[in-house]
Amino acid sequence: MRELAVPQPPAITLWHDSRCPGCQRAIELLRLLGVQIELVDLEQAPPNAEQIADVVRRSGGRAGDLLRASGAGSQPLGLSAATDEALIEALAAHPELLVHPVGIAGDQARVGRPPERVLELLIPALPDGLSPDDFARQLMQGKLPEP
């Protein structure tokens, strides 16, 4: 297998849950690429409201993007019509509602749903025309695309 020359950020911070298969896949993909990862276990070190707001800003999305789709516990909290500010406060108070994994690098953040989305933090390092999902599939098969 040839070595892949990918300019990488100095590190990617990954919010994760150690029991989550998607989180484990994201970690595996980043490690295969030799990316330095700072792991933040959401159960052991949940983010505060300021950190959550910062991730929302870096992702270019909305606070609702960080709410788990399963919504375990979100209905009793009445979060379906909540403002971003209210949602950020609720996520900080109830970190079990946070989606995972979430990758953070430089001024960007990505929700890892699917886990291959964290590879978008390495763009423009991916070869032209190759999606993060296709790249991850080839990487897991031990194949590296031609430059």
SSE order, one letter for each helix or strand:
EHEHHHEEH
CATH class: Alpha Beta
Q: What is the number of helical segments per DSSP (H or I, 4+ residues)?
A: 5
CATH topology (level 3) name: Glutaredoxin
The computed structural class is: alpha+beta
Count of folded domains: 1
The averaged pLDDT comes out at: 82
What is the spatial order of strands in the main beta sheet? 2-1-3-4
Radius of gyration, taken over Cα atoms and rounded to an integer in Å: 16 Å
Say how many strands there are.
Answer: 4
Fraction of residues in H or I helices: 25-40%
Report the portion of residues in β strands: 5-15%
Label the CATH architecture. 3-Layer(aba) Sandwich
Head-to-tail CA distance between termini: 14 Å
- Principal-axis shape equals globular
Uncertain residue ranges:
none
**Main sheet characteristics:** 4 strands, mixed
CATH H-level superfamily: Glutaredoxin
